[in-house]
Design goal:
By secondary structure, this protein is mainly alpha-helical. It is 54% helix and 6% strand. A five-stranded antiparallel β-sheet has the order 7-6-5-4-8. It has a three-stranded antiparallel β-sheet with strand order 2-1-3, with helices on one face. Strands 9-10 form a two-stranded antiparallel sheet. Helix 2 crosses helix 4. The chain starts with 12 loop residues before the first helix and ends with a helix. The C terminus is likely disordered.
């Protein structure tokens, strides 16, 4: 339903396209809410002892849907009669709902079969986000009259940024995931980012940070799975004791599946060291399980380690952040041979910081209050976990990236061959870079293809003739000129793959002036004079170069050989 929507005719214009983007945002919210409502209604219908009607089930579905977006609910039907907050977000539902928003924004940016031009990125972002938030507002108003109403303040801070972030990533994905400033940014910013290779470095940082965060979550999931197997009897007793019929057990199973990503985040926080809280007076870390826990009866919580000091098995959880640091080193060090040691270390450190930011955000969503009193704190502390993640990953990732870079450079140095011919190509490129710094104007070369390649003039028969003698015409330090002759494609193609095609596509002499002196006779052309082409490398930009005088052609051999 989100991939194919009714097409619009060409006569409807731009306003209809914008309306379609707004409707896609509303459709994404309606699909998530409808899917969750179907599951809740199925559990309610199959329950033999339901104490509420279909209205109560729909209010419960609306409350759970808002909770999955990060909103904090307030339960009024407690045993004590006092309202109790519920802030633990089922992250599995969150992933599904945010994927719907992401896909809606991404699909709007893609042109349809009718050939309609998609709106701008800013318009799509605002319209999709606005359509989805309209559904959120309606659902929050409906849930207000039920037993699980959303706290109004929580609808603004966690919910709106989450929806906006999902829509923004959808627009960014449709645009090709660019890492560059917007088009309206100053040209100096574009040039600075291109000169410092910001896009390439940022891509490496994001990829390494995502890899480190994924390894942390995967390691936490493995810790939880191993603990569940270790405490299988307690898990089974908790699962069977919560409900005596298959409908209730199905509901418990669905809730446990929705909280599996939360358990993975808790396991990652446990491996990092800060652990998690089971109430205001109890903390679980690899070193010890202290305090009196306020532990509800739930199958996933049966995997909590035994009370008391930690053992060697508990200390082994430190392998999770170590593996995350190794992942960051792996993704950073494999690109390290193209940059210096300082750049490699800085890239690994920034990736560790990114891993810490992602871990802190996930930790803040995975925990929260489950009631009043002792249950006011339940789950890992986000700022402690967010500080421990970059500390661990930087401690392992930065030295690991440097070691991997050194090993790759040593491997390349030991297996290199064909140094002479490759060196000639590098010398030519180095000289071209110097000539770029000595002049002003367009770049010293540009890529050409298609019609431009067909219209490229052929060099004269005397091209490069002066390079055979090997006699320089001057010294760059002394302000003279140096003969320039590009390497032949036949010589470089034997040792450098693709060198011939590169040479055919590049036009290295585009920096020559295009004044009327080029239209002289063939005998007076610098390409046909039999000498080598000379370009000035003087330190003073105002020093005259090897360009012939603007006067008419001369017949003297001195002017022809210049």
């Amino acid at each position: 339903m989100t991939e194919r929507t009714p097409s619009l005719s060409a006569e409807q214009g731009r306003s209809a396209v914008l309306a379609s983007a707004f409707l896609r945002g509303m459709l994404a919210g309606g699909l998530g809410l409808g899917s969750l409502a179907v599951l809740v209604m199925m559990v309610w219908i199959s329950s033999p002892a339901s104490d509420s009607g279909p209205g109560g089930a729909l209010h419960a579905a609306a409350g759970i849907w808002l909770l999955a977006h990060g909103a904090e609910l307030v339960r009024t039907d407690t045993l004590s009669g006092a309202p109790a907050p519920v802030g633990v977000v089922p992250l599995m539902l969150t992933v599904v709902l945010m994927w719907l928003v992401h896909r809606a924004a991404r699909d709007v940016m893609e042109p349809d079969d009718e050939g309609h031009t998609p709106p701008s990125a800013g318009s799509v972002f605002c319209l999709v986000t606005g359509g989805y938030l309209l559904v959120v507002a309606v659902v929050a108003f409906y849930a207000k009259s039920g037993s699980m109403a959303a706290r109004p303040s929580s609808l603004l801070l966690p919910l709106v940024p989450a929806v906006a972030g999902a829509a923004g990533t959808g627009v960014w994905t449709a645009a090709g995931r660019p890492i560059a400033p917007p088009s309206w940014a100053p040209m100096r910013l574009h040039e600075a980012m291109a000169r410092t290779r910001f896009a390439g470095r940022a891509e490496v940082v994001l990829r390494a940070a995502a890899a480190g965060t994924a390894v942390l979550l995967g390691g936490g999931a493995l810790l939880v799975a191993a603990s569940l197997v270790w405490h299988v009897e307690q898990v089974q007793a908790s699962f069977l004791g919560l409900s005596g019929d298959w409908a209730g057990r199905s509901a418990v199973l669905l809730l446990a599946m929705a909280l599996v990503p939360n358990a993975a985040v808790w396991g990652a926080a446990y491996g990092l060291g800060p652990g998690f809280a089971l109430g205001t007076a109890s903390t679980v870390t690899p070193l010890a399980f202290t305090g009196r826990p306020a532990l509800p009866d739930f199958p996933l919580l049966a995997a909590v380690p035994a009370h008391g000091p930690g053992t060697v098995l508990n200390w082994a959880a430190v392998a999770v952040p170590v593996a995350a640091g190794v992942a960051i080193a792996r993704f950073t060090g494999r690109d390290g041979e193209t940059c210096s040691r300082w750049e490699t270390a800085l890239t690994a450190a920034l990736a560790a910081v990114g891993c810490g930011v992602g871990t802190a955000a996930l930790t803040a969503a995975a925990g929260g209050p489950m009631g009043t009193g002792a249950l006011a704190e339940f789950g890992p502390v986000w700022w402690l976990t967010g500080a421990a993640a970059p500390a661990w990953t930087a401690l392992i990732g930065v030295p690991g990236a440097l070691l991997l870079r050194a090993w790759r450079l040593r491997q390349q140095a030991g297996g290199g061959s064909g140094g002479g011919e490759v060196g000639s190509v590098l010398d030519f490129l180095a000289y071209a870079d110097v000539s770029e710094q000595r002049r002003s104007g367009p770049r010293w070369w540009r890529w050409r293809g298609g019609e431009d390649a067909a219209e490229r003039p052929e060099p004269g028969p005397g091209t490069g003739a002066g390079t055979e003698s090997g006699t320089p015409t001057g010294s760059p330090a002394g302000g003279g000129s140096v003969p320039v002759s590009p390497p032949s494609p036949a010589a470089t193609s034997a040792s450098v793959p693709g060198a011939a095609s590169w040479y055919q596509e590049a036009v290295p002499y585009d920096f020559l002036p295009t004044d009327p002196w080029h239209e002289r006779t063939a005998g007076d052309s610098p390409w046909n004079s039999g000498g080598s082409l000379s370009v000035s490398l003087s330190e003073d930009p105002g020093t005259p170069s090897a360009r012939p005088p603007e006067a008419g052609p001369t017949d003297s051999p001195e002017s022809a050989s210049s």
